[in-house]
Every structure is written in structure tokens, then in C-alpha cells.
Design brief:
The complex is a heterotrimer.
Chain A lengths: L1 E10 L2 E11 L4 E6 L5 H8 L6 E7 L2 E2 L5 H7 E4 L13 H11 L5 H11 L16 H13 L5 E5 L7 H18 L2 E6 L2 H7 L2 E6 L2 E7 H5 L6 H9 L1
Parallel strand pairs in A: 3-8, 3-9, 6-7, 7-8
Antiparallel strand pairs in A: 1-2, 1-4, 4-5, 9-10
Helix pairs in contact in A: 3-4, 3-5, 4-5, 5-6
Chain B lengths: L10 H21 L2 H18 L1 H4 L31 H37 L1 H16 L2 H12 L3 H28 L2 H8 L4 H37 L11 H8 L8 H28 L1 H6 L1
Helix pairs in contact in B: 2-4, 2-11, 4-5, 4-7, 4-9, 5-7, 6-7, 7-9, 9-10, 9-11, 10-11
Chain C lengths: L5 E12 L2 E13 L3 E5 L6 H9 L7 E3 L2 E4 L2 E2 L5 H10 L1 E4 L3 H4 L6 H12 L5 H14 L5 H5 L8 H13 L5 E5 L7 H18 L2 E6 L2 H7 L2 E6 L2 E7 L9 H8 L26
Parallel strand pairs in C: 3-9, 3-10, 7-8, 8-9
Antiparallel strand pairs in C: 1-2, 1-4, 1-5, 5-6, 10-11
Classes of the chains: A alpha/beta, B mainly alpha, C alpha/beta.
Amino acid sequence: MIQVDHLTVNFGPSVAVRDVSFSVAQGESFGLVGESGSGKSTILRTIMGLNPDWSGSIKIDGQDTKSTSRTDLARRAQMVFQDPYASLHPRYVIGQAIAEPMRINKLPDPEKRTVELLDLIGLPGQFRFRFPHELSGGQRQRVAIARALALNPKILLLDEPTSALDVSIQAEILNLLNQLRKELGLTFVIVSHDLAVISYMCDRLMVMRNAEAVETLSREQLRSRDIAQSYTRELIAAS
Amino acid sequence: MSVIADPIIDPKRALRAARIAEFKSFARRFMRNPLGMVGLVIVIALLVCAALAPILATHDPYLPALSDRLAAPGAEYWFGADELGRDIYSRIIYGSRLTLLIVGLVIVTSAPVGLVIGAIAGNYGGWVDRIFMRITDVFLAIPKLLLALAFVAALGPGIVNAALAITLTAWPPYARLARAEALIVRNSDYVNAIRLAGASDFHIIVYHIMPMCLSSVIVRMTFDMAGIILTAAGLGFIGLGAQPPLPEWGAMISTGRKFIFDQWWVATVPGFAIFIVSLGFNLLGDAMRDLLDPHLRQRR
Amino acid sequence: MSENLVEIENLRIAFPREGGMSDAVRGVSLSLGREKLGIVGESGSGKSLTGRALLGVLPSYAKISVDKMVFDGIDLTAASPKLRRSLRGGRMGMILQDPKFSLNPVMRVGLQIVEAIRIGDKKLPKREAFKQALAVLEAVHIRDPERVFSLYPHELSGGMGQRVMIAMMVVREPDLLIADEPTSALDVTVQTQVLSILDELVTRRGMGLIFISHDLRLVSRFCDRVIVMYAGQIVETLRADRLNEASHPYTRGLLACLPTIDGPLDPLPVLQRQASWLEARP
């Protein structure tokens, strides 16, 4: 579903991601774990075309993202951002925010689908008429997920989806994401600094450090401590 | 938000209700600022004067009555009469129309121009940004009144030309402001999210960046109105703005100047009018900034 | 004079809201010896406000009422602003989540530490203060103190900045240190290091520490006692090593809803908030 080969991303003179390769199968949930500055979020943004300066190849559904148009890419993959307080337009009511991707892509009946989406992520239909500042952090993150699902993508890229939330809310969001993946057959790429979250959510994971991939593990390998790199052990010990 | 009765049946009304509730909360917070209310009252009074000038005025502002030349303030002429015996009170009332006309003309031309230029420069960055901002710098580098003077001198005196000239000097700060906001907004997650949904640059600028610049622009606009009034009066004073017999406040001061020692009211009354109106706009601007400025708002 | 370093009884903090006051802290009482006390709760539970009230750094529009607030025998409710300021500078210290906001951005960090030392002891010669500053940087396990001494705050990494912040606080040898989410902006591996430094200093110098955090597990590993707050009230006080014996459903819910590396993959138990938790407790 996603195939990343020899990806290198530069931010001016510094290298944010160096020669990273991985692939994610359809319906799989793949985790990128590492500390701040390890380049894990940069990979997600680059897949979505938010970073212009990169080399290597990224294929989604077998199609090179460099030759895919933005609207085409938008219908295949969407992204959920870390900070639910910054990812919703402060002047738009929730309904507008969710319907906007559908309006841009001229999908039929955005009003009706907005209500369906709200129902899907567990918020009542009246929430369409609330402003983001009237919602709690967890509710906002649900709205951000609904907006990402508006175009029916098969892939969801999640950038630290719960790190700005309280732990009790984190559980709700993680449960929701798992349920959505099962119901809609989504493919996930989740970025997190929290190994416990990744172990809970992901079938496979890649540990990153200083812009480079340290190792790729399956969940079973992680849980049986079948680990080759000492850095990964350090991470486990610390969390 | 209990105002939302049955949103599923009538989404349009529910949306309107949400907006009205939002506005009500804004109004409530505004009313807690007494100085802001004073400013608002002054501005509303100005609007009322302009709208109801024929009713409020006691005399014809243009009709000379040479027998009453330079009459002192009294029962007949509340604020006295000028060198042609015209009622100063009535002229001030009619003058508010001219003041509003200039302010309105300048605002509706300069703010949108600045907003569009700033939003485009900020959104695209790179060479687009550099070209637009250097042009802005050139305009900013020349003193306002001097630039306005040069334009009026070229275009010829008159009220519309004065407004045009002021516009040419007033848009660069808006462009700067809008660009600064746009630079922040374009990298925010909600703009990224909508970009990922396939939105065009045009869509992002019009629906996301410009609305977010708007609050800063409105604040700046309210402050600017005071400055515009002063510049317009300045142009009127030196005879390049509104032409006699138009009751423009600056021009009135200019003619009253000759009698300042013996008939003080001829120059003083329009002076006060200018003073009070610019004070009103400044107070209003202060209150608006307290409520709207995104940087101040975060700190609360 | 009481044995406890800090005693607070029935602390209430309210903020003006549209149409009345909203209570943020509702009757918190706690005491602290020379120990490590954790305060845990979600955002909005009032945990940070409690710490700030003790320091006296709440915004002026906050309405505070307290029956008793004593720091080492000093009645803080009756203390003059000047006394409280000098307490803050000397005997009480605070570490915030993000060191970037607490350090002067245009001053070398070493000089900031020197300044802090010389505020505490005005007669100390400059050279002596420099020496002490380097020593304290070493004490917070900074490998190359001379180099770090002459850096500006923006040149520090998050972990380094937090260590400098801790150094700046402990250099005055306070009796009480309030750490408000001191490690939540840091990476997990750095987090452990910073905590062990903090632990070492607290134990060696016999300080009292109030550790405010949203992370129940982290706090229980690090502190002696844990106070759990919910909606402005203390729901439970526990010995950190007896966390498993927590009786309040909120505490238990908080513990259960965290995923673990080796935990089951079933849906996580979600905290069911009950209205009864909000009721005032004796």
C-alpha cells in the first residue's frame, strides 16, 4: 500500500531523514517511534507532500507520489495532526470544517455525509454548529479524524494523535482509531514517541534515531524482546 | 448553547444561531470596556450626524448672512458664525458627511488592497513575497503627508482626489500586517489539513488566510481612521483637500485661522470636532484590539 | 513550629467568568515534609494552581481563600508581598514545563546562574559565584560545564535546558522545590536522567519536592506520596508504592486506561466519569 525507498529529506543544510526505507501492507498498522528530532513526523509530512525538498521514492497504491496530483493523493491518504487545538479553523463551525474537503473535491451531499461522519466518530449531529473553542481536546481530535475521513481515504497518517491529550482521553481516541480501522479497512501509519502506544496500536514498527532508521520490528518481536539494537532496549527501559 | 433548537431540521437557522451566539458573547465582552463604549458612542454620534444632517442642522450650511458675520456663539448661532455669517454648528454637522466620505473611501480602497497583497505575499513566500514587500517598503519609506501632497498636487485638489492620495499612503501597513499573519497561518495545521484535502492556493488564501488576517486588519483600520481624519483635515487646511464652500473641518480651521485672536470659535469648534472624532476612533480601536488581537488574546 | 515544611488547609481558588465565578480549586488540604510529593490530575484539575498558590504567583484576578497556608512556620496568608518575593527567590523554587520560557533569551545561561547566586548572597565575590555556577552545572550532570556556561538558551536542547533550569533553582538551596510537569516536554530517555538528577538533589539536600504531573505512573515511580486530584478536589492520597491499592474509581480508571508495551490488545478501558466525583467531600 505504501512503499518508501531510500527517502532522504533536507531542511536547508541539515538532514532531517537519511536514507529510510519501509513498506506498509494493506490494512496494516505501522508505527514510527523515536525521540523528538528523529525525523519520524517529517516522513509523514513528506509522504503527504508538505515538504518539497526530498529524494528517493514514495509510492502509494503502486503510484509514485511525485506524479500523483494533489487531489488524487487526497483521496488515497489523509493525515491527522498532533495538536487538536491548532488543526481546526478557529472561525469555522465543526460542520464546515468537516464538509470543506468534500466541497473542495465536489463530492455529493456534504451535509448528509457530515452527520454520518460525526456519528461514526461518536459525536452527536448538533456538534456541527459548534465552534472549536466550545469543544474539549478529545472532541476536537475526533473532529479532526472525521475531517480526515471525509474523502474516504484508504490510508490514515497519524502524527502523535494523542500526545496533546489527557491519558483518559487518549484511551478513547485509541479505541476509536482501532474500531475505525476494523470497520473501514484502513491502513495506518502512526507516529509516536510513546512505545506503549505504538505497541498497542501497531502490527509492525520502525525505531528511528537522529534521522535514521534503527530497526524494524514486528509487535511479537517487540513483546518477546527479540531486539537487535541497544537503543531500542534503552527506549523500552525508559518507558 | 441552548439556542440551537432543532438543528437537523433547519441547519441554516442553527448555523445562524451559532454565529449570533458568538457575536453576542463578543458584544458582552466589548460592553465591559467603558472607554471602548465611549469611543463607540462618539462614532455612532458621528454616523447619526451624517445621516440626519438636514434635520439636525439649524441653518443652511452654505447660505451666507453677511449681517451676522463672525457672530459670537449664542441662541441664534450655537457655535457662532463664520466670516460669511454661516452657522458653524450646521457646517460642522454637514462636515461630518465629508469626514465620513473620506474615511469610507480610504478604508474601502486601502484595506482590501493591503489585505490581498499581504495575504498573497505571505502565502507564496519566495520571490513573490520579495517583490511585493519591496514595493511596500518604497511606499513606507516616504512620509505619509508628503506623498499625499505630491499626489494631490499631481491630481489636482478635491475631496475624491484627497481620498485617493491618502489611500496610496495608507495601504502598505495593511499589507505588512496581513503578510505577518499569513506567514503564521499558512504553516498552521488547519491550513495544512485543508491543503492535504486538495484545496487550491486560491481557496486557501480566500477562505483560510484572509479571514484570519481580518481581525488584525480591522483593529488597524479603526486606529487608522483617526489618522485618516487628521490627514484629510491637514490637506483641507492647506487647501488641497475639500474646496470652499464645502464645510470640511480642516478647511474651516484654515479660514478661521485669520480670526483666531478675536473670534476664537471660528477655528476652535471644527478643531474640537476633529479632536473628538479621532479620539473616538482611537478609543474604539483600543477596545477592538483588546478583544481581537490574536497575540493579546493568547495571553489571557 | 510544626514539623511539616508546608501545610495547606482548605485552599479555594476561583476565577471570574461570564455570569459569576468558576471554582478551579475547591478545598484542597495537604501537608509536606522533607519528602517527594506527587500531585496528579488531568488538565483543569487544579494541580498547577495549587502549586502556584503556594508560591504566590497566581494572576491577580484569581480569588483565593485559604484557612491556613504555612511554609516552615511562616504564615503565608499574612506574609507581605515583599516577604513572599524573597521567599520565592530564596527558599522556594519552581521548575516549569518548558525551560525556554523561564530563561532570559539574551543572556548566557552561566551568567544567569551567577546572577541567581548573587541575588541570594550579595557579598559573594564574583569569582566565587562563577565557581559555584560551574559546580552546580556539573551537579546536574552536564558533561562540559565550561562550554554550556557560555551558551544562550536557544542553543540548548530540551533536556539540557531543563537541567540548566534545575541548576538555577537548586543553586539557591531552596527548602521547597515545586516542579510543574518538569519532564513532559522531554524525550523518555532524557526524562529518566533529569528525574534521577532531581531525585539525587532532593535526597542529598533534604528539600521538600512537589512534583506536579499528569503521568500517574511516572509520579508513582519517583515520589514518596501521591495526591490524586479531580475537578479541583483531592480524591485520594496514596503511598506511591501502594498505587495498586488505590480505592477511588478515578485513580483506578487512570491506571487502567494506559496502554503498556506488553499489555493486552483488547479495547482500553475508558474512564467513566461519575457526577458523584464532583460533589464536595468532607
